[in-house]
Amino acid sequence: MDNRKLPIFINVPYKLVGANIERVAGLGVGVEVYAENNTLDELDMGDVKELGKKLRDSGIMCTAHAPFMDLSPGGYDRRIRTLSKDKIKKAVEMAHRLNAKSIVCHPGYNKWFYDGNEQLWLDSSVETWTEILAEAKGGPLVLLENIFEETPATLISLFGYFKDKDLFFCFDSGHFNLFSAVPLEAWLIPLKNRIREMHLHDNHGKSDEHLPIGWGTFPFRELKAFIAQLTGIIYTSEFHSEAHAMESIKNLQEFIS
Question: What does the domain layout of the chain look like in residue ranges?
Answer without folding.
Answer: 3-256
